Amino acid sequence: MEPGSYAHLDHDRLGRTGDPEVVFGLGKTPAQVAELLGRLHAAHPERAVFATRLDDAALDAVAGAHPAAELHRTARAAVLGPLPAPHGSVLVVTGGTADGPVAGEAALTVRVHGAHARVIADVGVAGVHRVLGIRDELAGADCVIVVAGMEGALASVVGGLTGVPTVAVPTSIGYGAAFEGLAALLGMLTSCAPGTVVVNIDNGYGAGVHAARVARRTGRDDPRT
Amino acid sequence: MEPGSYAHLDHDRLGRTGDPEVVFGLGKTPAQVAELLGRLHAAHPERAVFATRLDDAALDAVAGAHPAAELHRTARAAVLGPLPAPHGSVLVVTGGTADGPVAGEAALTVRVHGAHARVIADVGVAGVHRVLGIRDELAGADCVIVVAGMEGALASVVGGLTGVPTVAVPTSIGYGAAFEGLAALLGMLTSCAPGTVVVNIDNGYGAGVHAARVARRTGRDDPRT
Amino acid sequence: MEPGSYAHLDHDRLGRTGDPEVVFGLGKTPAQVAELLGRLHAAHPERAVFATRLDDAALDAVAGAHPAAELHRTARAAVLGPLPAPHGSVLVVTGGTADGPVAGEAALTVRVHGAHARVIADVGVAGVHRVLGIRDELAGADCVIVVAGMEGALASVVGGLTGVPTVAVPTSIGYGAAFEGLAALLGMLTSCAPGTVVVNIDNGYGAGVHAARVARRTGRDDPRT
Amino acid sequence: MEPGSYAHLDHDRLGRTGDPEVVFGLGKTPAQVAELLGRLHAAHPERAVFATRLDDAALDAVAGAHPAAELHRTARAAVLGPLPAPHGSVLVVTGGTADGPVAGEAALTVRVHGAHARVIADVGVAGVHRVLGIRDELAGADCVIVVAGMEGALASVVGGLTGVPTVAVPTSIGYGAAFEGLAALLGMLTSCAPGTVVVNIDNGYGAGVHAARVARRTGRDDPRT
Amino acid sequence: MEPGSYAHLDHDRLGRTGDPEVVFGLGKTPAQVAELLGRLHAAHPERAVFATRLDDAALDAVAGAHPAAELHRTARAAVLGPLPAPHGSVLVVTGGTADGPVAGEAALTVRVHGAHARVIADVGVAGVHRVLGIRDELAGADCVIVVAGMEGALASVVGGLTGVPTVAVPTSIGYGAAFEGLAALLGMLTSCAPGTVVVNIDNGYGAGVHAARVARRTGRDDPRT
Amino acid sequence: MEPGSYAHLDHDRLGRTGDPEVVFGLGKTPAQVAELLGRLHAAHPERAVFATRLDDAALDAVAGAHPAAELHRTARAAVLGPLPAPHGSVLVVTGGTADGPVAGEAALTVRVHGAHARVIADVGVAGVHRVLGIRDELAGADCVIVVAGMEGALASVVGGLTGVPTVAVPTSIGYGAAFEGLAALLGMLTSCAPGTVVVNIDNGYGAGVHAARVARRTGRDDPRT
Amino acid sequence: MEPGSYAHLDHDRLGRTGDPEVVFGLGKTPAQVAELLGRLHAAHPERAVFATRLDDAALDAVAGAHPAAELHRTARAAVLGPLPAPHGSVLVVTGGTADGPVAGEAALTVRVHGAHARVIADVGVAGVHRVLGIRDELAGADCVIVVAGMEGALASVVGGLTGVPTVAVPTSIGYGAAFEGLAALLGMLTSCAPGTVVVNIDNGYGAGVHAARVARRTGRDDPRT
Amino acid sequence: MEPGSYAHLDHDRLGRTGDPEVVFGLGKTPAQVAELLGRLHAAHPERAVFATRLDDAALDAVAGAHPAAELHRTARAAVLGPLPAPHGSVLVVTGGTADGPVAGEAALTVRVHGAHARVIADVGVAGVHRVLGIRDELAGADCVIVVAGMEGALASVVGGLTGVPTVAVPTSIGYGAAFEGLAALLGMLTSCAPGTVVVNIDNGYGAGVHAARVARRTGRDDPRT
Known about the structure:
Chains A, B, C, D, E, F, G, H: GO terms for molecular function: hydrolase activity. Chains A, B, C, D, E, F, G, H: Residues 88-220 form the PurE domain. Chains A, B, C, D, E, F, G, H: This is PurE domain-containing protein. Chains A, B, C, D, E, F, G, H: It holds the Pfam family AIRC. 8 copies of one chain form a homooctamer. Chain A is of the alpha/beta class. Chain A has 2 domains: 13-80; 89-217, 3-Layer(aba) Sandwich (Rossmann fold), CATH 3.40.50. Chain A has 9 helices and 9 strands. Chain A has a 5-stranded parallel sheet, with helices on both faces. In chain A, helix 2 (30-43) crosses helix 3 and helix 4 (100-112) packs parallel to helix 9. The longest helix of chain A is centred in the N-terminal third of the chain and has 14 residues, at 30-43. The relative contact order of chain A is 0.14. At the A-B interface, helix 5, helix 7 and helix 8 of A face helix 5, helix 7 and helix 8 of B.
């Protein structure tokens, strides 16, 4: 078997969708991750490509193979190549400390896909004044990503405060009847806040791709960069 | 079979627990409901007894058999005998219009079990200012009951605003991934607001019994009655 | 009880989110639906308000109370007041004939929320050439809504063909292991197409709100109107 | 990143609810737990704060950082600062030996939140005489917490014996069809004993917060302290 | 198609297992039920055969076709032919009034399968004294059947009181988290009382067959007949 | 805490039910298991007591503390004290090799509870001739235990061949849609063979207690001992 | 809207797959069914087309619109146009009487798709001799379809008797833990008989399409026609 | 216990079904796997037998005991004895890299069972052009196996492109709402492509047995061998 024949990269995705393919690290060996990231980079040297869901061994393998790669250990991801200039901005809001890795993956995905990203952490619903305190930040974003576990109520509160397009990411944080993210997933799907859309449990990547697409389309250059 | 032999009423419950037995109407014929309510009343003429989960036919049968009965059609319940003087007060808060019958059952149960009850309806989380507007009412109650369907996020927001003992009632309002109350049930069980306790889906009666027990124990006579 | 006291309309939602409140017909009487729609219209006479999830009786009640209302029987909805000028355009694609009502609700919601909507029906995955045949339409939209039941695979195929922001709506069409939309819901949540976001089963309204928000933000006036 | 910026403690919770924030140890590093507990203690030196769900490493980290901390290894928790004087008393009853850690967490939570707590262990329903033997203890409590796994039937038996407000905690003890606490959770939610309220699986903390709030409100100083 | 060709009766079952085949009425037309019962009776005129799960139309059809048939409307069953002399006795205990039809089916099945059956109804766990009051009856039986819905805790309490072989039948009585018998089923499967065996939800027939087999094997002629 | 105060043994169970209490090893330390087994033995020196669900460490601890104990490593159990003389006989049949430990636990439980036990392994349904080959053994037993994982079809085939009381034990053997025993559990509960009763997944102990109670009652001394 | 614009028939399917499109009647009006069947027939007059999942009204509408149509009321289907000459033969085996409609749909689908079909009904596993009695018929088929509800064990027994390709169809027959076909579905998916493949609950059509494709490929002209 | 008495091999299966028994490695020790494979080989020296679901230790044990064995580490399987000459050909298509082991098990099973197998990997639906690019290969096969995780949409797309008998294998690849293969399983069961049949999650073996049986029956000698 020739090297890398275990995967057929979809180099054409950039042409079809405007977004490059990603290396999804789950279930791949560190060596495979490093090699595939290199192949993606070779195909698209002019813009950033990245790999997600990396454990420490995979991150180390990427660092070893690609000294120019930028490692994001909290987000469990690595980027190779120059980030695109951001168009539009995405605000990522989290319900608790433990939602950090998913929020980090979302924010990094947004940046790789061409928009600006900012994270405001630990805005739990049990202290609703904290949510109310970020109304201006919500209103100023082109797209909002809400990351929350347990009952996921943050999506409903945020969704009721703003008309900015909002994506909810349930996380697997919690125990017992949280059923590894199911409670948050069902809660976000049945949210009483109109227009809330949802991605898979812990899928910061998916939320980031959608949010970046929305933000990029506003055509507003982000003033912060 | 002698009349009424299909049910062995637990007349001793009042002695054991301080609360009278209730006629649970689900699965009983209108005639059975009316007769059982009469038997409960005969055993405890000095204080109110009641029947819950009554359809229109059962309510009519009760009205026909017991002209003195007080009918609560929205709450689908009927009361017979004098209500006890209320001790302590319970506030019932609902997320939406459709939660009304469950909230009504809860409030009536509270009153029958010896506490004062007040209902504030339609305080949805998607308009969080409505919740903030009732902070004084929450603080003034001896026990709070939160009734909400869909994602049930109201329990988390209320639970974060007050230290009053709070009981959450998920309702079967919603569709699709609400799974007939399951989303709200899981959401309330995993609420990030500490101390939230939960009863079965649509179980206004159970929430009312617990809340009345809590409120009665405060020993404060309700100033409103 | 004064008329309409069973519901506290959130007239302020327009100010907070840019979108008017909707009358959600499920669990409301025809008279309630008609009255609430009238109250919404009185509060916002300058722009369309609407009611969803209406059965025939509710549609008739609306028609009787509001001769100016526009009825959409397939979409089970009614609109009152002038539709806003559309900004941006949304394409609604369905997998099968039976997905029509949900697609209709989505399209109408888009129009009420200020964007243009077009429906292309019956583009099932089992005949993938039909999906390939609408690539230009997909590319030309500002947001795409994919409505599909059974296994919901249409979302993955469409999501792989275009980089336009895409919202997937699982429907309850199917039997057996479709589990009233659960198979489609899980399939869309785990779609291999990056950036697919999902709403509740049969929730055309929610998809429409999100899609309209995205489309409006593009600032492109729709050439077709 | 400045130290501790990964978490925004809700110091105001004490003012809103009368209860201090807790450090929830799950998913936090030992160092984070120790530091956050120290910050809570610094904000509220006059009354006990605590941390729950600690593994041995976290308990050791707390012990190292805070020699004054009181460690509860069975309850997997640690307390820092003087316990408040107890008002009212809570009885914690368990179905089996393996429910001990959850019962310990509940009892400790009760004490930190200002009420007296007593645990009676191993009162399984399969030997119902053991339950009947503690009727006096049940009657003398201001609130009862029932901790049980497997089928959770203890909640129904206790709930039928007393009118004291009762909170049921399902535990994940069991195997097979216990589904990690689901059987006990469903059983407690559908208990035939009126007024039973339930918290999440293994959530001794939540039951303790609610029970302490109820017990404190009785205003009876506990004679045992 | 010749009459009755839609079903191949297993006339040999009596030889293999000692028990006659039953007509399971669910999904059969009244005419089919009546005809099949007649065919069974013709094949085994010397001993009773019967049909279960009959609605009113099926019961009427049986009465019309077989005037000698004994109808049991509560148990939704019909018997044709002489009952066998009973060997051994089975006690059927129910948790509530609504469990009556399932208990009736179980008791009738026991009798048709050759043992004596007695029903004690409405022995709910929430009044545990009622269970304790029947200890002698439990001890005197050759097999016990416990029929209960909601949380099904009665099986655990009875199972802890007696060493008589005990079969638990969960019923679909309840609402919400009872999930049409699932809560009772899981509770009975995970009962802490050793030796509890379980049948399908509402399956009084299956419990009756097993119990009769156990009771018949004791070889004790029932003194009551 | 005095030694052993973590568990209140139910020494009276023998008097109530005729069966001694068992040490359920799951969740107990090896030292606890050894001590509790010793206490049970001290209370009932005249007859065997035993401990189940033991891992290697617990088995070693028992061996160290009680040299007279009989260890059953496949069944993961240990017995202390003289086995009672067997009355009646139980046949344990398994579907596959991997069901061995559960079958072993069942057989050992039967012997400790006073009946004879024999195991016939690996009688899978996919080779139905193997089942037919043991018809005589089935007919000669006083009670049959069927242990099977995956789809659990063995219970239906055995149940159709014999009228001997039969207990089905689903095991967690399998993968994917076996859902750790759920497929076998549901299959056995809905078996088309009349009179099949079921215990919890992997619960060889429960099946053994029931089967021994049934077999003992036949009063036939087992000729093989 | 022009007539029939609610559905885009996939006339090209015959070219791609060798099989004509079918009219799936669920969720379509009788008039739509009749019209669509006519359009299919017009496009393929030389070979049979058909419609499935028809209620009585749809069957009547088809009969009225297409006097040449062949109605199959048990199978709830209708055929229009000449059946193709059969190549190869399929044997359909059912577990019980109530599986008849699904078996009928499967058999009719086989014939419409170009193979011979024969049904042997009521071969339940609880009487395994009935299965053994059809070994020759199994061996003589080119493909076998097993239709069974409840626990679905028939698939395992048949699958162990023959090496002929076998398709299992779980049906929704049963109650309680059958969960509308889920028990049979899981049982068939985890069958210990190698090579068993499964279709959706009650999906006789899907099984028929697959079986016909397999049978046709054998190239053996069926001697019975 | 004599060596190997823990398993009764079904040597007769070859006679009944034309296929040899397999050693299913899950839950067996390496030594057991090696010995059982040897016994199978001794019984059928003239044709290949094999073992599946082997971890590295089991593969090493097989290699040590049977130097002639052919090891397939990706497919986690080992073959002993000469492969039969292939009749007919099976095409195995996978959705992603991580589906490789299941696809390998399927392909190897096909070859051991007497047909030719070819694998085309990584034909994900999100790049539908990759599926369209293998239409000729699909058309040329005698049976197709589709292996896919996540939402499993590949089965629907392939099923719509070809009339070759197609077996779908859901894999446990994915996270969150993939629920370890459940999403793919439900999606494949409800596929809109007619005639799709499904096996258990990750069951490459079962798909291979069925596909080989179908391919062998075509009677076409494969030109490639």
